[in-house]
Each structure stands twice: as structure tokens, then as C-alpha cells.
Design goal:
Layout lengths: L1 H11 L7 H9 L4 H6 L5 H4 L5 H6 L5 H5 L1 H20 L7 H29 L3 H33 L1 H12 L2 H7 L10 H36 L9 H24 L5 H4 L4 H10 L2 H12 L1 H17 L3 H26 L5 H23 L5 H29 L5 H20 L2 H22 L5 H4 L9
Helix pairs in contact: 1-8, 1-9, 2-17, 7-8, 7-10, 7-11, 7-12, 8-12, 8-21, 9-10, 9-18, 9-20, 13-15, 13-21, 16-21, 17-19, 17-21, 17-22, 18-20, 19-20, 19-22, 20-21
Length: about 475
């Protein structure tokens, strides 16, 4: 539990730095709200992790993997990527949005890579619901503690010494787990010496980081050019296009399912290292997979929509960075830990359907709390209560949801399938979150947070149907 708490801390620390903290930084630099909303699309990287998750199952990081094993090797490489990307992000700002976007994307990429490796290891070691509950709780305690520490600490430091100091300080803390992993025992069958493996890993890691940065810059340049040609800017209404994109994954699944369902065990689509793990999921669940995917897309949608714009709204209400930072400190940490602990305990006592329903309800209440906050006088105790409601709901729903998704995967493809499910769960919400700024401009903050709360509740009607879903026997 201590180990997975540490891994959760390593993955959670950078998250606010490319989401809510970055939104406040861009707001302070005078960036338009619609453009701040576009930066929510950086958070699409975790939803696309199924694209490179099979690589983590198949390949070993040179140097690191030889001594510490495949999973820890990828975690160590990801921590190098996190620290370097965040340090670079410290020196960017609203005047160089393209460069800021580059390092935000790299930070999201390496954070997601860390999550893929840690999640695969967790599922391999603890495959049952009773085992998953405590381990998921420990992992999320670390994750949410780090998110709170980064969010609160960064805002307090930014208020005192500027955004560069804040990002550099968090980058330094993000690197602290690396020497802990270096000092851990070697993997079974490790060859060579620790020092040689570390040097080889650092050299290979530097080459991989530079290659990833160059590739990201090239792809980003093309994407920005296409966006400019399509007329997408801070004044464009992208909501209809985003809603259309949200429908495409379901249409693709419906078209592919009949062929996958009929495929024998030796069919290419099921044996392929690249797509076999994902075809296996649809082969086992059949057309019920579409219902499952619709449910997982809705379950955290309200929280995701609220995440990127809640802090800019609070700042517009008249709260200062230090006030927001204090609310995101002890108050948010205590509420989040309580929510995660409650969720981790409930999955060992209640049926999954009831725990999922309670998670959706508490998440919705947290979103409605922002509407209540907007109609109160500026006062820190009021902000503390709204923050506590939001963090408790997020923590409880998050813990329950992680266990539920972990139970859906085939242990033969734990890394790839869990990456696919968690990625798809946030794909549609984060696509829509990118249009959040334009939606607020059209309907206002009140209606936006009412909408996000209602969307959290919209997952509950799926639960009676999901209770009857059973996977096909593996073959």
C-alpha cells in the first residue's frame, strides 16, 4: 500500500500543473476564456493512452529495465520526462502559447505513461475486487494528496514569488520519488550492476525525451496550421464540431462489432499485438460493450467539465490566489482522502451498482456546490465548504470507478485494456471540456455547473442494465 501510494503521488503531482493551475496562469496572462478552454484538450493525452500502452507491455526501457524490471523502468523514465517538462513549462507563459502548449502536452504524455505502467503492475499483482479496494484507495490517496499539494502549493508560491518559482518547485518535488526507486531492490534475474544500469538508463532516457519532444513539436505545428486554416480561434464556436466528434467512436464500435464477435481465436484481429487486446474486450462483451463505453464516458463527465473552469470562475468571484491555494490545501486534501477512503471501503462491502450510484450522486452535489458558491458573498469558509463537497465527491466516485474498470479487463491484457477503458472514459468529457469556455460564454457559469452536475447523474440509469452484463468466456 505504501508503494502504490508513492506511485499515485508521482502520477498526481503534475496533473494540476497542466490543468487548473495552468488555467489560472493563462487567465493571469490575459488569455481569453475560450482559449483557456482549448487548453483542456491537453488533457486528451491520458484518454489516448491506449495508443502507446501496448508498447509498455512489450518493450523494456534500456538500462532501467535491465536492473529494475519493465514496469519500474518505464516509471523511472516517465519521472524524468515529468520533471524536465515541468521545468521547461516554468519559463513559458501567455506570450508564447504554442511553446506553452508543447510542454504542457509533453507533461501530460509522461504523466500518462507513468499511470499506464503503475496501473498495469497493480492489476497484475491484485486481480480481485477485495484486493483492489485497499490498493486503489492507497494509490488514490497518494494521487489526490499530490494533486492537492501541487495545486495549493503552486498557487501559494505563485502569489508570493511568481509562476516560474511555482513550476520549478513542483518540478523538484516531482523528481523526489526517482531516487527512492533507484534504491529499491533489483528485479528477479537482473544483470549487471546498479550504477551501470542507471547510467545507461539516463543516457537512453535523454535520447527518448528529446525524440518525444521533436515528434510532439512536429505534430503540434501541423495541428495548429490545420486549426488556423479551419478558422478555429478564440472567437469560434467549436461546440457543434466537438459534439459531432463525440459520436464517431460509437459509430466505429457499432460498425466493427459484428466482425469482431464472429472472429475465431486464431483470427488476425484477435492475435495482433497492436489491436488484439482491444478486440478481445469487444469479443468478450459483444454489443454490451457499447453500453459499457457509453456509461464510462458519462460517469466522470461532470467532474471533467468542472475541473478546467472552476478555478477561473472562483477567481472572477473575487477570491485571490492565496485564498484558492488555502482551500486547495488542507481542506481539499482532507475531503479527498475521506472520499477515497469511503469509496475504497464501500466496494468491499456493497454491490458495485450501489457504490457507483452513490459516487455519481456525490460527484453531482460537488458540481452543484459551485452554483451555490457563485451566489454567496466572498468568504473563505464558504469557499472551503464548496471545495470540500467537490473533492469528497471526486474522491469517492474516482475510487469506485477505478475498481469497476479494473474488474472489466481481461488479466491477459491488463495494461492495454485498462489504458483503453480509462482513456475512453475521459475522451468524450475532455473533448467537450475544450469547448467549455465557449459554452460558458453562451450560457454563463451558473448553467454550466448545473449542466455538469446533471451529466454526473445521467450515468445512474445505466446501472440496472450493467448489472446484467456478463463477459463471454475467454477462448
Amino acid at each position: 500500500m505504501a508503494l502504490f501510494g508513492l506511485l499515485g503521488f508521482s502520477a498526481g503531482l503534475p496533473f494540476y500543473m497542466f490543468s487548473t493551475v495552468l488555467a489560472l496562469r493563462l487567465q493571469a496572462d490575459g488569455v481569453a476564456l475560450a482559449v483557456i478552454g482549448f487548453f483542456a484538450w491537453v488533457q486528451l493525452l491520458p484518454t489516448l493512452k491506449f495508443v502507446w500502452a501496448p508498447l509498455l507491455d512489450r518493450f523494456v526501457v534500456p538500462g532501467f529495465g535491465r536492473w529494475w524490471g519493465k514496469r519500474r523502468g518505464w516509471i523511472m523514465l516517465a519521472q524524468l520526462g515529468i520533471a524536465s517538462s515541468m521545468a521547461a513549462l516554468a519559463f513559458t507563459g501567455g506570450d508564447g502559447l504554442a511553446v506553452t502548449a508543447l510542454f504542457a502536452v509533453l507533461l501530460a504524455f509522461w504523466t500518462t505513461t507513468l499511470e499506464i505502467a503503475a496501473d498495469a503492475w497493480r492489476i497484475e499483482l491484485f486481480p480481485t475486487q477485495d484486493e483492489q479496494g485497499p490498493i486503489v484507495a492507497a494509490n488514490l490517496w497518494g494521487y489526490r494528496s499530490a494533486m492537492v499539494a501541487a495545486g495549493s502549493g503552486a498557487l501559494l508560491l505563485a502569489d508570493a514569488g511568481g509562476w516560474t518559482l511555482a513550476y520549478l518547485a513542483v518540478a523538484g518535488v516531482a523528481f523526489l520519488p526517482f531516487p527512492v526507486l533507484v534504491a529499491m531492490r533489483p528485479a528477479d534475474g537482473a544483470g549487471g550492476g546498479r550504477g551501470a544500469a542507471l547510467l545507461a538508463g539516463l543516457l537512453a532516457g535523454a535520447a527518448i525525451l528529446l525524440g518525444a519532444a521533436a515528434l510532439t513539436a512536429g505534430v503540434g505545428s501541423v495541428a495548429l496550421g490545420l486549426a488556423a486554416a479551419a478558422g478555429i480561434d478564440g472567437r469560434a464556436n467549436v461546440t457543434p464540431w466537438v459534439l459531432g466528434l463525440c459520436m464517431l467512436p460509437f459509430l466505429a464500435m457499432a460498425a466493427a462489432l459484428p466482425r469482431i464477435r464472429r472472429a475465431p481465436a486464431d483470427a488476425w484481429v484477435r492475435r495482433s499485438a497492436a489491436i488484439g487486446p482491444y478486440a478481445d474486450f469487444f469479443w468478450r462483451y459483444g454489443f454490451a460493450a457499447i453500453v459499457l463505453m457509453a456509461f464510462v464516458s458519462l460517469y466522470r463527465m461532470g467532474d471533467v467539465l468542472a475541473l478546467n473552469l472552476s478555478k477561473p470562475m472562483i477567481k472572477e468571484l473575487g477570491y485571490g490566489l492565496s485564498q484558492i491555494g488555502r482551500a486547495d490545501g488542507v481542506v481539499a486534501l482532507a475531503a479527498s482522502v475521506a472520499g477515497v477512503g469511503t469509496g475504497g471501503w464501500l466496494v468491499t462491502r456493497w454491490r458495485m451498482g450501489w457504490t457507483l450510484a452513490l459516487g455519481a450522486l456525490t460527484a453531482a452535489i460537488g458540481n452543484f456546490g459551485f452554483v451555490w458558491l457563485a451566489h454567496r458573498e466572498v468568504a473563505e469558509p464558504v469557499l472551503y465548504l464548496a471545495t470540500a463537497l467537490d473533492q469528497f465527491g471526486n474522491g469517492l466516485a474516482g475510487a469506485v470507478f477505478v475498481v469497476y474498470l479494473s474488474l472489466l479487463v481481461n488479466p491477459r491484457f491488463s495494461g492495454a485494456q485498462y489504458a483503453f477503458l480509462t482513456g475512453f472514459a475521459f475522451l468524450l468529457p475532455r473533448l467537450l471540456a475544450g469547448a467549455g469556455g465557449t459554452i460558458v460564454g453562451a450560457i454563463g457559469y451558473d448553467n454550466f455547473f448545473l449542466l455538469s452536475g446533471v451529466l454526473s447523474l445521467a450515468a445512474i440509469p445505466f446501472l440496472p442494465v450493467l448489472a446484467r452484463v456478463r463477459p463471454r468466456d475467454d477462448a
